[in-house]
């Protein structure tokens, strides 16, 4: 990790104050109110969070709000609650019983609407199914599904009986699924025959079959019928969702769960090749999801809210499922691609359901810019009142387009910085009070105390880049990495003592605005998806033709970052376009489409230091077509650089 070469090229001076009508109705209406909340949460976190904890249902009251045994937090010690109860049951004795929870639209155009009552019933039934299959508290359940209502139903059913879910994004390949099944030692896999994407079937069950060959702990597999093509069902192992649900009991009370009982694992990339199972627990996560939903999106009962993420990522967990349901919101959920059947699918959805709040990613926005304004202009988007962005920094050009073309110049944009590990949004404008600067995630939420520090762990001066750290525990924080406390400590709590190291660079400007400046480690951000360079390299090296591989990111107009892989070949193999294509397919099969390099460059050697470390910094420069800046004195063989530059094949 190095802070060398961090330069700030953004000079953004525009400021957009919140519209007065927005502020008037918002929960947090002024910067004074925000500052007061923030200070209170910093000075007295237990008093602050203890008050909000009343909004959850407690089967048994907790004894202490926070016990901090660095780096392990216990929030709401010895209390008992249940996340599925807080998402569903709490609404049933209120007028929200018949309020719409999900408006779901499949890619082919099929629509389903589930009220809180209906969702509750489905969740109870599926929880009964899980119990009947012998799933118990603490068991791990892998979920590999398309974006259909049964996905949140499966998650909530796990939460209801205390099973720990591990959702694996449907775009991951069999290998990646097997790796996650095995690390979590999952007993059960829930999948579907397939899902729809750009009019084609994503063959989930086929992938699941291949994964299960290598997942010895999986005993049963529940299969939802979605796409209807012929699939392989293994007798005694594979069971149809609809058959299990036919006679399932709708009576399945939520199990009282300890505040710190694990709710889910979500695998994410770190700087090694092995994805880590980020562990989130019950009460603190639930409360954090609910409060950040209410503060950042200022969600109201009459709102229709749409988060376009896939539930396979943390954004979907917290802001399609647990946050909005806890807040009693009406949520739009869409299965498929944004360009199917036309480039205006999203705008059509917004117009038809009168979506008020849209939460999406910069990579999507840049794609829409490329597709052209005419697709947007065909639709009436006047229902929108608030826009959100997540996954990577939003460049000011994309921000302005989002603001003007989508928001009609009247909707605040909340640029939300957070991570799989943080459980919920950490740094973000509050739409009713924060004056926006395009490209800045602005200020920390109440309960979040960040600093930007140098390698000595001390805060850097205003305007200077450094490591972003969080100095106090917050309720949504990860509680560890599944099965690897040491890695948890090493990864987040060792480079800067007593502070959570987020892994991003940032700087704070003279007005206190935080600007996120990208990762400090070998983690790539491709279209808002996190990948480690080593994962891509391992996939490449597992092909017999590859001797050595180094993957780096290079700037990409749409994806933010694209993967460029430098490959040396094994004896007897020659560079060719056919081999290049074969290697791309191989990576697709090992990890998934999201990890396929845009460029594969064959070379006879990689630039290394004398101790044998690949000098990625140089490769990054070459991949980006930049002159190499900085120190090359540790390079072992200078001619390698010259040959790479010359584009040797
Ligand atoms: C990394 C976390 C949390 C949901 C999606 C990604 C980058 C995320 C922003 C933002 C600049 C951002 C960071 C972070 N990131 N949001 N608003 N501005 N960078 O979750 O896969 O855990 O990735 O995404 O680099 O560390 P994730």
From TrEMBL:
Acetylated. Deacetylation by the SIR2-homolog deacetylase activates the enzyme. One of its GO terms (cellular component) is cytosol. One of its GO terms (molecular function) is ATP binding. Residues 535-613 form the AMP-binding enzyme C-terminal domain. ATP binds at residues 391-393, 415-420, 504, 519, 530. The keyword Ribonucleoprotein does not apply. Keywords: Acetylation, ATP-binding, Ligase, Magnesium, Metal-binding, Nucleotide-binding. Catalyzes the conversion of acetate into acetyl-CoA (AcCoA), an essential intermediate at the junction of anabolic and catabolic pathways. AcsA undergoes a two-step reaction. In the first half reaction, AcsA combines acetate with ATP to form acetyl-adenylate (AcAMP) intermediate. In the second half reaction, it can then transfer the acetyl group from AcAMP to the sulfhydryl group of CoA, forming the product AcCoA. This is Acetyl-coenzyme A synthetase. It comes from Thermogutta terrifontis. The lineage of its organism: Bacteria, Pseudomonadati, Planctomycetota, Planctomycetia, Pirellulales. The gene is acsA.
